[in-house]
Amino acid sequence: MNTTEILQRLEKKEITIEEAEKLLKAETATDELEYANIDYEREERTGVPEVIYCAGKTAVQVRGIVQNMREHGQKHILGTRCSREKYEAAKEVCPELEYEELSRIMIYQPEPFPLNKGKILIACAGTSDLPVAKEAALTARFLGNEVEEVYDVGVAGIHRLFARMDTIESASVIVAVAGMEGALASVIGGLTDKPVIAVPTSVGYGANLGGVTALLAMLNSCASGVSVVNIDNGFGAGYMAHSINCLTGKREEK
Amino acid sequence: MNTTEILQRLEKKEITIEEAEKLLKAETATDELEYANIDYEREERTGVPEVIYCAGKTAVQVRGIVQNMREHGQKHILGTRCSREKYEAAKEVCPELEYEELSRIMIYQPEPFPLNKGKILIACAGTSDLPVAKEAALTARFLGNEVEEVYDVGVAGIHRLFARMDTIESASVIVAVAGMEGALASVIGGLTDKPVIAVPTSVGYGANLGGVTALLAMLNSCASGVSVVNIDNGFGAGYMAHSINCLTGKREEK
Amino acid sequence: MNTTEILQRLEKKEITIEEAEKLLKAETATDELEYANIDYEREERTGVPEVIYCAGKTAVQVRGIVQNMREHGQKHILGTRCSREKYEAAKEVCPELEYEELSRIMIYQPEPFPLNKGKILIACAGTSDLPVAKEAALTARFLGNEVEEVYDVGVAGIHRLFARMDTIESASVIVAVAGMEGALASVIGGLTDKPVIAVPTSVGYGANLGGVTALLAMLNSCASGVSVVNIDNGFGAGYMAHSINCLTGKREEK
Amino acid sequence: MNTTEILQRLEKKEITIEEAEKLLKAETATDELEYANIDYEREERTGVPEVIYCAGKTAVQVRGIVQNMREHGQKHILGTRCSREKYEAAKEVCPELEYEELSRIMIYQPEPFPLNKGKILIACAGTSDLPVAKEAALTARFLGNEVEEVYDVGVAGIHRLFARMDTIESASVIVAVAGMEGALASVIGGLTDKPVIAVPTSVGYGANLGGVTALLAMLNSCASGVSVVNIDNGFGAGYMAHSINCLTGKREEK
Amino acid sequence: MNTTEILQRLEKKEITIEEAEKLLKAETATDELEYANIDYEREERTGVPEVIYCAGKTAVQVRGIVQNMREHGQKHILGTRCSREKYEAAKEVCPELEYEELSRIMIYQPEPFPLNKGKILIACAGTSDLPVAKEAALTARFLGNEVEEVYDVGVAGIHRLFARMDTIESASVIVAVAGMEGALASVIGGLTDKPVIAVPTSVGYGANLGGVTALLAMLNSCASGVSVVNIDNGFGAGYMAHSINCLTGKREEK
Amino acid sequence: MNTTEILQRLEKKEITIEEAEKLLKAETATDELEYANIDYEREERTGVPEVIYCAGKTAVQVRGIVQNMREHGQKHILGTRCSREKYEAAKEVCPELEYEELSRIMIYQPEPFPLNKGKILIACAGTSDLPVAKEAALTARFLGNEVEEVYDVGVAGIHRLFARMDTIESASVIVAVAGMEGALASVIGGLTDKPVIAVPTSVGYGANLGGVTALLAMLNSCASGVSVVNIDNGFGAGYMAHSINCLTGKREEK
Amino acid sequence: MNTTEILQRLEKKEITIEEAEKLLKAETATDELEYANIDYEREERTGVPEVIYCAGKTAVQVRGIVQNMREHGQKHILGTRCSREKYEAAKEVCPELEYEELSRIMIYQPEPFPLNKGKILIACAGTSDLPVAKEAALTARFLGNEVEEVYDVGVAGIHRLFARMDTIESASVIVAVAGMEGALASVIGGLTDKPVIAVPTSVGYGANLGGVTALLAMLNSCASGVSVVNIDNGFGAGYMAHSINCLTGKREEK
Amino acid sequence: MNTTEILQRLEKKEITIEEAEKLLKAETATDELEYANIDYEREERTGVPEVIYCAGKTAVQVRGIVQNMREHGQKHILGTRCSREKYEAAKEVCPELEYEELSRIMIYQPEPFPLNKGKILIACAGTSDLPVAKEAALTARFLGNEVEEVYDVGVAGIHRLFARMDTIESASVIVAVAGMEGALASVIGGLTDKPVIAVPTSVGYGANLGGVTALLAMLNSCASGVSVVNIDNGFGAGYMAHSINCLTGKREEK
Q1: Fewer CB within 10 A of the terminal residue: chain B, N end or C end?
Q2: What ipTM does the predicted assembly reach?
């Protein structure tokens, strides 16, 4: 909506002066953001608004983007890789923002998206993989999915995984999070007919090469029905799982 | 089904002598295969029978496995990375086997699987990526999916891709096949809300490092909703796309 | 100019005693710089004076080099990868030095170089790529070029780029700055007939391998007319763009 | 031009029946090429027609593409990485095609493009780098440039390079082709103010890693005004040099 | 034993003239081998004679080494990575040599070494890993071990492995052979308290990087009690397993 | 043991109220550990309890796991890669925990495991490899092995190693720890018939690539009877050595 | 010399009680050093005493080693990669130790080694390479060589190097220190008949990969008579240059 | 010598007409070599004529270069990496050329260079390393050095090396050739005070990565006085050893 349109709507009394002021400010804000070019058409195009990847941005930039989104009336804000300091900055302009420490995710979402029918399962191999698993879980929930989490079921004690077969079978998509040799993805892939999104983590040391080992192993999985996202990319896995889960349709509202 | 069971069923006249002989032979055959241990329970577990990856096997081994599968009454046989020579060997014991030259796939499937409702789109960047794209397409069709193919739509002439937006939007899953810098996956990922399976190919030279460049680029896609399979792994992409497409349900038989 | 020449010129009254003192001091200064060997002939040879790459130098060395250049009458000083601390040190001996925080560039340039006719466009994919883009822009401006900047036009929202086609077409050289999968270079390369200098950035994580992924992707661009500089090398891109833009000739002075 | 337009032009007698037939056949031909999607708008967009990268295509595909281009009235056909066998196949449908053995380039170009004013210099380090240097030279000439070649001027005998300084200074763009440690690019870059396109070659053994060593070295050149294309990518360098040289303007026709 | 010693023993009638001749010839033979320096003291030092790694040697060299060993009275000859052609050459001078095609091993061993008490299990993931598994099995048997083989028990059909738990538990050392993502080693390692020697194979394609992926994955196994040998190094694994199995002591002769 | 069983045993007076409370608390604790899923069956399965890898866990998580293990009556607790801060946290709930600074290992073990008959030798190349060697030594001792340590016997002064041949020969398993070029493993492997576990360390700089060089060198050892664990993985080497040493049987109790 | 020998010499009055005490203390000291095993025979074997590589050692260990060497009467102590903190610790037990900040070298050498006849030249490409160049220069001087230093003569301004040809020709060995693309080694190698030791440095960024680029480039030098040491290994280069320079013989004492 | 000079010398009767013709032809020949630019000044500059690296050249080019050198009166021709086919071609124009099969070296040298005083020792680890060792030996002999060869003295049987200590000590420079883990260089480096040139070979498989493992290991040698040349670069090692050995001076002619 541009300036002319806003004024026309005011003239037609479709909006109040206060509303017009707010809309005009939003526009101004956009112009002021010389470091970002927010893709407000994305929600229309893909059903999901632009997500803020905070890692390479300053606290000032993160705050500015959140402010700009609020001024455009954005109802769903998700920030990933967000340090507490950047979250605090953003909270100044959006006090309702919530923060989850482990996954470093911040969320503002007064009303949730409608739920998809299917359920997403997040399984992770070890305690050290939790931050990535949480990032995936929170992302998928934010986007409108029922999410179940199963943690510390790595293949060194494979019975722990088998004890959860019912849970695995009840999901429509599975996200398998693992570092070290990443064998969890192959084992789950061999046990189920559901699509598996594998997330390698940088957990481990020495020849794990910062997660490259788990990444390579997952790409070479001997099981079929497994595809892979970037190292530590819990967000990407949660998003992909949502994108797949959408094919199950939306739940009927009660 | 073990020997005792077969004989019991014969006794109960549930099967004929001929059938019993065939079943017993199948069992024997299994025992004879000292180099392979075919997973006949997989179809039950995952809905898809074991697929023959021919690359590391001798022609004699491939023929033996096909024979063994036929003797077990297997109705759906798919062989990938199959040289013409290995296909010829297998054809001796299964004359109905068909072969597609470009993708090096062999198929025996007297009756197709029931079709999934959704459609799978295979898009590839250049003519040189065709063998991999074909492998994905044939795999997905074999598993029971409607498949549409869009070829040579690389980003150096991006209007060719935009001209096919309708096709892209009509699919429920998209497989993006590209070598060189693999940018096709990101561009498609940014244009659609459907899950995109990216397949890097080894097409290119020099610093493409045998496909590793395209692989890395796809894993780092700035678009969301993209996950990746191994280099040149058309089969894996077709299988993953099928696995996702199953969530759309089966088409009603007419 | 050596000691003898300075004294001869003094004798001939071509210079004053003050000037002679200054020149002699400059010479001394050179001798004192045991850690650097400044290439004062470079400006004559290539039209551009030696640039100070501050990253591997101590604050004391940076200050010494700036002092030495001033004493030689150097009119154009550019320091790159300069921490604020090193800038502060250099400012002590050259108070007119200016500093740009984001790009970590310091500049002393009382009179600009004559402007080239053509315009250089700097396009970057995301907010996190800004420091590198700014380094390119400031370098190109320092060397005497009109520079236009277009930020946050990554391929995940490709319409933002298409909205700027006029700007792209008005430039004589384009610098494309991108991290992650670096697809921006290929897309721009496919849309224009102008030379594109691609700058991979280290923006991203995991399998981006500190920018190597974007670097490899750009080297394998399926578009023609693209060449590449080192990861995060905004300076190199700005310099190369200037070097190309020189072929358009100098603007006439008004 | 689509079918309707062709028929309209026939009706208006702007074209003869023979011409109309030819045009319709061209269109048909496009439809027949299921493996390629030739970008006939590229010449309009970038001034250069689509080039055929033959390496990943079969002889039949190369021939089909050449035929299709001829039928569309394409006047400038360049095929790179073309084996003699593929050239022979293409020659069947385009007898005027010429072939250069060393660079594996085939060219059909009844009338040259207009010449750019500036001159392009191709310098190579050793005899073994010749195929890549020739690919660059032929590409640049095809696109409409005066090209001068200076061979075997590697830095192990640096006086051979200095003996050619006049030639270097007379060029507007320089392409430096080298394998092994690739030092030629840095040395030339330090001697001139002209843009240098560096082409690493796979010449060498052991730790040259198939050209990766020269590539990395060139990307890290201590000289400014150097940018790099893919390993052995003579075509890319020739194209980039042309793209830059266009800024010097076209020569006046005599 | 040197020439003087041989003659002294002859003089003392400790040996016959024939024996002396044979011993002198052996010595001569050693001198003739200018390309090899056989370590005849190794058997004394480590209990195992020097093994012939045929890969980097010519057929003539392999034959010469076998002849030399026979002339020294060597009773246990093992040649690995031996092409049929080299085997044929060696057979000329040692007709009792036997050859196993799949593992490319040749053996001459008129009398076996005494058997170790414990049993070695060789488990492999897929049919394509057989050559490496066989190399391990034949090496271990040659050195004096009872060996059991379990093939095609990869983790994509993990029930096949569980069906063999009794066999796994009856072994004192386990060799796990796998390509692709190499998860077999971790799964076995998690199920047993016996030492596991993991052998990565080069089976797979694309991002398996010639076996490096399986190697890295095995080195990062989340299970304890797993150590790793070089890619495709069946010999090394068989040898290591033997070296460990020796700790169980020798079987009593009946 | 679940709640019902505990109460039944209380009812039958098999346990006291205090014991019941403790057991119920243990159960509760387990339920509270949402970040870990301790494998209490491992000791039964492999003879060794689950070991705590502290590196990727928070101090709170480490303390929680230790508390949970104590409440389950765990008698053998080993924590590796444990910072002093995490140790301090864990000590709050298990005051008997001891800490070794160099290896960053914490141990709680009121009663040792029974000793294996054979002896384990830990040899390391340089002073800088000590932390890894100590981790191996402490792990092996914890698991019930006599351990001898020989330090700073690198191959640059090979006589220091030869001076310890008696020690080497008295061991049943040898752990060779070395950084840089890791040649120690090959030299020891060539001198003994005992199994050698090689541990590459990240000691060195530049082209040691964080230990990858030593890792690769050890995997390519020209000596037989050598297998390798991950870089800096002293724990893994100690565990593997124990696993092998178990084959020598347990020492008789006096 | 062991305890018995010391006492015998005391008895024979070959040494005083004070000397005996000192010798016994030295021996004790050795025994106390459980973390190091100093190779006191090295000076006899190679003419150079063991050098202390301080990087992987604690301050306490460094001090202990220096003390131990002093107590053994060691007259030449060289410590490399020594932080100021470690130097301060060592100085407590050896107050004459001197420290050079840039190269992080500490030296105790009351009397120099006799000088070799030939001269060693250290040439470095840029100011940022100075720490490595200094390490080479100080090492070579410590070992008894005349050393000349030429700094900041990188190939981007190649005339600065040519201006020093006389110096180059007067040396018997040349150490060439360079980061980035490391071309200095090739250029010097092509200009001289003297052996050149190339030292790659980690100076640069992005695709310099921590010095690996310069390392690879130097290994692939097109000039002959160049060999290479590890990245940033100034010590190794100085030592190698000394080892070569010894062939020129010792200078006569005046 | 240029045309004018030749004619002047003819006029002065310093040369005959035949000689003048030959010299003029040589000059013409140079002009004819459009693919090579032979550095005839190198012998003057470095004492060694340009060597022909045949690998990247065609048989016709190799023959042309040899002919050109002969016509210039070149007395010392060395061709490396020369296939038999290229040798045969060159022999047509230089019948005295000799060829050594294993090292693929061809030599024409009617009169040897004067001998250096010192001796060069070539030591290699295994039979498979022989071709590289021979290349080093022949190169060093060609350049005027006494060369001694010691083969198959790898560290797996280290006593074989110790048996040759006298030989090692009698050399002034040592070339150590080894593949696999390349430990030979470190062990020799620790035993001698002479400079050691290490040559990694591509011998081995799997994680030897085509010789990169041995290269890295040698660069990280814990012994001092070791420098490294490229993988399989026997020529480079022989040349470097010669360059060092020159410092011992020339032997007096008898």
Answers
A1: C
A2: 0.86
Q: Within chain E, which residues score under 70 in pLDDT? A: 1-7, 21-32, 253-254
Tokens of G138: 């100080």
Residue type at A5? E
3-state secondary structure of G175: strand
Q: Quick one: pLDDT at residue A2?
A: 54
pLDDT per position as a tens digit, F74-108: 999 999 999 999 999 999 999 999 999 999 999 99
pLDDT value at F36 more than 50: yes
- DSSP-derived letter for residue G24 is H
Ramachandran class of G17: left when φ > 0, alpha when ψ lies in -120 to 50, beta otherwise:
alpha
Q: Give the pLDDT band of residue G147 (cuts 50, 70, 90).
A: very high
Summarize pLDDT for F141-183 with one digit per residue, the tens: 999 999 999 999 988 888 889 889 999 999 999 999 999 999 9
- Rounded CA gap, H11 and H15, in Å? 8
Number of G/H CB contacts below 8 angstroms equals 99
**Residue by residue, what is the 3-state secondary structure of chain D?**
CCHHHHHHHHHCCCCCHHHHHHHHHHHHHHHHCCCCCCCCCHHHHHCCCCCEECCCCCHHHHHHHHHHHHHCCCCCEEEECCCHHHHHHHHHHCCCCEEECCCCEEEECCCCCCCECCEEEEEECCHHHHHHHHHHHHHHHHCCCEEEEECCCCHHHCHHHHCCHHHHHHCCEEEEEECCCCHHHHHHHHHCCCCEEEEECCCCCHHHHHHHHHHHHHHCCCCCCEEECCCCCHHHHHHHHHHHHHHHCECCCC
Say how many C-beta atoms besides its own lie within 10 A of residue A163's C-beta.
12
Rounded mean pLDDT of chain A?
A: 90
pLDDT tens by residue, E106-162: 999 999 999 999 999 999 999 999 999 999 999 999 999 999 999 999 888 888 898
Q: Which residues of G touch D186 (CB under 8 A)?
A: 155-156, 181, 183
Please write down the HEC assignment for all residues of B28-62.
HHHHHCCCCCCCCCHHHHHCCCCCEECCCCCHHHH
> Across residues C213-240, what is the average pLDDT?
96
Residues 6 or more apart whose CB falls under 8 angstroms from that of G225 comprise: G189, G192, G193, G194, G195, G196, H46, H239, H240, H243
Pairing of strands E173-178, E196-200: parallel
CA distance D104 to F196: 54
CB contact under 8 A, H233 and D206: yes
Report the gap between the CA of B21 and the closest CA in chain A (Å): 32
Residues B22-62 pLDDT 10s: 666 555 444 457 788 888 877 877 788 889 999 989 999 99
Q: How far apart are CA F150 and CA F133, in angstroms?
A: 9
Q: What's the rounded Cα separation, in Å, for the pair H128 and H115? A: 30
Size of interface A-B (CB pairs under 8 A): 100
Listed in sequence order, the residues at least 6 apart from G184 whose beta carbon sits closer than 8 Å to its beta carbon are: G123, G124, G125, G153, G154, G155, G161, G176, G177, G178
Q: Do G190 and D216 touch (CB under 8 A)?
A: no
Q: What is the pTM of this model?
A: 0.90
**G51: which chain H residues are within 8 Å (Cβ-Cβ)?**
224
Write the CATH number of the domain with boundaries E119-248: 3.40.50.1970
Q: Which subunits have 3 or more CB–CB pairs within 8 Å of chain H?
A: D, E, F, G
Distance CA C141, CA E205 (A): 49
Give the whole-angstrom CA distance, residue E39 versus residue E30.
11
Chain G residue numbers with beta carbons less than 8 Å from the beta carbon of C42 are 157
Q: Distances from the Cα of C4 to the Cαs of A158, C10, H117, H160, in angstroms?
A: 85, 10, 49, 68
96-135 in chain G: CB under 8 A from chain H: 118
**Given CB atoms, is A36 within the 8 Å cutoff of chain C?**
yes
